[in-house]
Amino acid sequence: MADIAETADQSRDLRRRPLNGALRWDTVVGALLVVLLLISFSTVNGFGNALNLSFLIGNTLPVAAIALPMTMLVAGGEIDLSVGSTVGLSGAVMGALWNHGMNINEIIVICAVLGVACGLVNALLVTKLGLPSLAVTIGTMALYRGLAQVVLGSNSVTDFPQNYLDFGSGRLGGSFLPTAALPWLVLAAAAVVVLHATGFGRSVFAVGASAEAAWFAGVRVKRVKLSLFVATGLVSALTGVFWVLHYASATYNNATGLELSVVAAVLLGGVDFDGGRGTLGGAIAGVFLLGTLQNVMSLANVSAQSQTVVTGVLLTVSVLGPRVARQVFAASIYQPTRGKL
Amino acid sequence: MNEPGPDLAVPVLALEGVSKSFGAVRALRSVSLSLYAGEAHALAGENGAGKSTLIKVLAGVHRPDEGAVLLDGSVVEFGGPAAARDAGVAVIYQEPTLFPDLSVAENIFMGRQPRRSFGRVDHRAVREAVAALFRRLGVAMDPERPARGLSIADQQLVEIAKALSFDARVLIMDEPTAALTGSEVARLFAVVRALREQGAAVLFISHRLSEVFELCQRVTTLRDGALVAAEPLAGLTEADLVRRMVGRTLDSLYPKQETEVGAVALDVSRLTREGVFTDVSFQVRSGEIVGLAGLVGAGRSEVARAVFGIDRFDAGQVAVGGRRLRPGSPSLAMAAGLALVPEDRRAQGLIMQMSVERNIGLADLKAATTAGFVSRRTERDRAVDWAAKLQVKYARLSDLVGTLSGGNQQKVVLAKWLATGPRVLIVDEPTRGIDVGTKAEVHRLLSQLAADGVAVLMISSDLPEILGMADRVLVMREGRIAAEISRADATEQTVVAAATGATAGSAR
């Protein structure tokens, strides 16, 4: 109610209060990850060997890859729930074209173009028609999954070239790093630079915090959003290729539900669901925190049901955590609903 | 030192020696205030003087660190806003907070509707109670209409009706007129006067000093959280009040310099946006300040938005420095040398959850960018530079811009746009809601910019500001340019007459 509304000249009283809840939260998540890793190395049998670590990382890579553009998208005030279906559609197209005898490299290029197209459809529905991305991408989530089923039916394609399958599941020398971790590292580094050190990155946060003020400052709001959706589509489609190679199986239902893991990890990493705040470091820490936890629970023979419950609890806490941290401060910087109704 | 109020009685509500600190900031230092029944009392002071804190103490939001709140002469402790409200203290804010989808009547009785059997809301009783309240206020409004779509003025009347429904004896109004037109202000004042005559005590806050003199009998002035004076308004001049608020004499509120008028910098011709404005043509030359006056809703801001590319337009064209602009693109308008300081600084001018330095740098990221990378050092240096030039008061540049006072926020918006080195600067209500000292600084700055050859288009609802600053005045009425008046011919009468289409002097 109006009772705690404040006027502008009051706000100087708040000058000294710490405000960056998100920044603190991503540090918390990073620290949690380190603690979890230390505990796991010292107490969980079989955790520290190279094979297990490569499984952990390899199985986490799809989420880790899509979390990069998703972090930008959420920081930009939008969301894409169709990523899991895009992974599935990309894999299905890959399988179908391979069955047709097409060259594998050409197939990968086609999948990439397909991903761009998927992202573009989302982007145009959001920017041209002004629809909320949550609703748009719930729709395209069903659409893309449906297309995947049309393309591949209930077939399962597995006979991809061995050297490609090796890329999907192999390790670098005898180390714990999966081969596919290398391109991911390059992509992650690029994403960090783009979001946190370029003008484009600034625009993303500006758009997420206030699209109106950003537009008044000359930011090309629609173009920013369009780029983010397209990047998300592209990375999702490439992840679809990796998924097929990693699990040596192309089916229409690859990566079902992946969007929830991605969004959950990003939010766990402290990226504000309302946009304008968040770091890629936090999101990546969130991804690997969840991945490690699942790996450890499997090693400790925790039942699948219990694993789901533990993950669910953690996710709930993670969505609440940054909120609560921020609300402690937000209580003091409450702003009244604007007068215009 | 204080003379007793009009009816020589005990004050309805009073503060005695109240102090309040937030961390190291002393917002109020031993401030006293007495509100009497049947009296309208003004609270004057610059932004950050402690007015809002004082109101919040009265409204039970803040508990004083020292001193006491007195109700009818006895000490009370309001446990919270609800306790203050139940004691008859109501606060009307600048921007009311109604539920848009509920009816006016439902808003007024939100949470305490009269009930019939089985807990059903007694709609007829609500309707009749609200109709009675509106009769008392002399307001013609349909209690059944939804709150959505009400003007801010009407929303405030709904809030006042709500306050009355709580039997409020003290009405605190925090800058209620900031977003109101002349006739809306007149209607609000009529309501407030009626309430005062019915015995309510009124505490009124406004940056428009003429309104203070028009409505109030006494004034309490704060500066830096401390009491400067509490005195009757009769016998004071606006200059006296300004001196008390600022602590010094302002050389001039409108330091207009004579400038060399150069070539046409902004050329707007036959601009039309259907249903919003029609056939708008004007030019602004470099070195010139052109005032754009008119009633709220006449289409002034809409023209500015279309010129800058925020909104598209249907016909006409805009040229900057002889080059025609592509419609609908702020970034291209900026590249051509246009800058717009928008009307709504919180929603349009600033990104409240970003730091001061990032806000200053946002419109001109290129300046701090090399090979695609933003240099934080360059960004900071530029922010330090511009903040110093505009005398922005801040603790740290990395603080969120939302933590600054309103006047300083406005300076940040100006800094952000001046950093782009514009040749045409459009300012929309550049001094709305900011205190008189900062206002004079903003005026000096605009004057200096014009002297440096910038073409300035200034939209303002503050008539003295238009008359004091503009070389020429364009007046809009109902989406068209109704008149162009030279500085020599511009008076309150001529401008108001053109804005309302009436014969001179009938608007206020």
From TrEMBL, chain A:
Q: Where in the cell is it found?
A: Cell membrane
The membrane topology term of the UniProt record is: Multi-pass membrane protein
> Superkingdom of the source?
Bacteria
Transmembrane regions: 22-41, 53-74, 81-101, 107-126, 133-152, 172-195, 226-245
Keyword flag Cell membrane = yes
Any Pfam family hit: BPD_transp_2
Q: Which UniProt keywords apply?
A: Cell inner membrane, Cell membrane, Membrane, Transmembrane, Transmembrane helix, Transport
**Major location (coarse):** membrane
Protein name, entry field: Autoinducer 2 import system permease protein LsrD
TrEMBL record, chain B:
Protein species of origin: Catenulispora pinistramenti
A Pfam short name: ABC_tran
**What is an example of a GO molecular function annotated in this UniProt entry?**
ATP binding
Task: List UniProt keywords, sorted A-Z.
Answer: ATP-binding, Cell membrane, Membrane, Nucleotide-binding, Repeat, Sugar transport, Translocase, Transport
SMART domains linked to this entry: AAA (SM00382)
Q: What name is this protein filed under?
A: Sugar ABC transporter ATP-binding protein
Q: Which domain of life is it from?
A: Bacteria
| Residue ranges of every copy of the ABC transporter domain listed in the record | 13-249, 261-503
**What PROSITE patterns does the record point to?**
ABC_TRANSPORTER_1, ABC_TRANSPORTER_2
